[in-house]
# Entry
Amino acid sequence: MEELSVRQLAQGLAHRQFSSVELTRHFLARMQAHRHLNAFITEMGEQAVRQARLADQRIRSGDHGPLTGIPLAHKDIFCMQDGKTTCGSKMLDNFIAPYDATVVQKLEQAGCVVLGKTNMDEFAMGSSSENSFYGPVRNPWNSDCVPGGSSGGSAVAVAARMAPLATGTDTGGSIRQPAAFCGITGLKPTYGRVSRYGMVAYASSLDQAGPFGKSALDCAYLLQAMSGFDDRDSTCMDEPVPVYPRKLDRSLRGKVVGIPDEYFSEGLDPEVRVFMERAIAWAEKEGCIIENIRLPNTDLAIPAYYVIAMAECSSNLSRYDGVRFGYRCREPKNLHDLYHRSRSEAFGAEVKRRIMIGTYALSTGYYDAYYRKAQQIRRLISEDFNKAFQDVDYILGPTTPEPAFRIGEKVDDPVTMYLSDIYTISVNLAGIPAVSIPCGIHKGLPVGMQLIGNHFEEDKLLNFAHQYQQATDWHTRCPPGFE
Ligand code: GLN
# Structure
């Protein structure tokens, strides 16, 4: 069952080959069997079976859509009234949200069954899922390696076949990088495509929710159900949502694919480069026109991102004061002590580092030197993309400079850790969509390619990805031992 696509699962449900309850129990059993990967913070077995029963009723009565009865996992950043929403932090270890995030609500309306909430870097800050209060997530391809982050638990849930689909969020690469490290497909939509209402905020001008699946077609179904206008998020765009799954069969003939020089420079692992060259050769064979392009401000993306993201997070995380949300220290001596100890005791090291750097960057006297400068660079990066998209349909390159690294390898060196986001971060600064697709395996670890599109061109990205997946079988590879 776990190898079936979302479409096959829906057909199986519609033809009564299995029920949603059976499907749900199957995936719950797999979650239990693979607990050592630490992909879930909360398993929601009981609620899931209840939801599956309702889905089965809907299917019987003919009131169902393509996702009715399909199980999925939510990143533990989405607020849900059922169960806890921890965001990977001790700060929210006891937090039960008073409302559901729009994404949660929409997927519930679609009839999805929620298997559980997935593990992640604390407040989505990280590239390895090692910064979780609940311990590191392990990569099913090699359990000594990280699965990427921050949505590592969601990527692992799909890669290890514990869930057919999962939600994630991407502020600087947190969907695409774990998708690449785990050998699955993950898409970061255009900023404003999916509502952020009820999604715990990290850096609000960059955060965006998106789908994980085994294939582009599976992601198309999930994206379809997640997207759309929401008046509770003022940055959510009122743009029509195409029926993504129907947009994937178009030929790629004549499409122009830009290859940025900057994404193929020294830092790139030679083996990853070989897989990229093969993918480019495939695109050419399909009738695409390949063009070399420049994205000259790429090397400024990481410094600009880490100033902006940290500035925004220092402000967003000020709400955790020991009074209104989550953790409160024991026996505070006075108000100041309450703030001080609640925050000191409940935030992890990386979160504290970022709050301090962000606060510094926003303080009088430094604001112009850092924050304003970073915003100016952000504009330049956006303009690089605008210019490129005048001539090309797609921009193609690696998702990450190298495959998954070892657990512990980069934790003590934040700058090296930050550098692993080099190819994903500019996309968030520009607010455009991008997808990561598996395109090779090197020394037993998956390699991902990233395809970047212009604003609201998710359908074009999924079209390319689907065509590639019709011709190749990288996306069907399952980590050994998880078949
Ligand atoms: N790794 C990046 C960071 O730590 C991106 C994280 C994300 O996309 N949430 O900020």
The mean pLDDT is 97.
